[in-house]
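I am still getting used to backbone structure tokens and would like to learn alongside you. To get us started, please write out a protein record for me. Start from the sequence, derive the backbone structure tokens from it, and show both lines together. Once you have written the record down, we can walk along the chain together:
***
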Amino acid sequence: MFIRNYMLPKEKLTTVELGESLGRALEKINEGNFLSLPVIDGKEFKGILMKEAVYRNYLESGKCNKEEYLNNTKVEEIYNNNYESISADERIEKASYLLKELRTPFLPVFDSNDKFVGILTHFAIFNAFSEIFGIDKGTRIVINMFDLPGQLARLTDVIRKENINIINFAIMDPKVLDLIQVILRVDTDDVDKLVDKIQSAGFKIGEVTK
């Protein structure tokens, strides 16, 4: 799962220019119900303008006239040019880690030629992981098992013998001893029969959601 498949391309972005007034920038932020916007200079990505930064800077400026402040202060005076970027060819897992660790609203995305091509947002990450977990697809089965070599192979072999397609699966750590949770989504019309087969093979079913 690559960044390029989930990013918002720059052609669809609302952006602000370095030379724009904060008043105009704030209009764009409010019109789109954004918390931040990419700052550009022509086609070049320069940084991030946060809505919170606009108001914080106004309060810290000590100016009494808000309209005068917004109209006379430029984006280039308060935007954040300290950012972390990511390649369009990177995998989504790295972006998820960076967004979490850096606490940034989005990551600017660059291609192999260091050309700005879009941004990756938290919402895009949520969509990607929703696909991984197969939300709204098939039947969800949670199996609790010990973290031992060969366990997954045994489980998938049980399902294979029933000629059932696994849409996707994920492994979670419930933080209990040496247990793991395997979350399956399967395509079957007779989930009860499959559950019986899994239990007969010695696995413990935690939850079934149709």
Notes: Residues 135-209 form a domain with the Alpha-Beta Plaits fold (CATH 3.30.70.260). DSSP finds seven helices and eleven strands in the chain. The chain has two domains: 3-130, 135-209. Residues 51 and 199 are 54 Å apart (CA to CA).
